[in-house]
Amino acid sequence: MNTLRDVKIGSTCTVKKIHGEGALKRRIMDMGITKGVKIYVRKVAPLGDPVEITVRDYELSIRKNDAELIEIV
Known about the structure:
The chain is an alpha+beta fold. It has 2 helices and 5 strands, in the order E-H-E-E-E-H-E.
């Protein structure tokens, strides 16, 4: 399973599925990360946390734990 955390800097991917349950999954979806949306990985902090992405024409930083819940194509 490929996740958002595995994507290299400067790459674009498409969300296949969001894992997790309840409030955590809802929070990720409220940020605009839903099935089928394209995500561009802009930067990754030196220790891997957080990951800076562009989704739906806005910039967003997410924790690597949350990035592991986002399955990509």
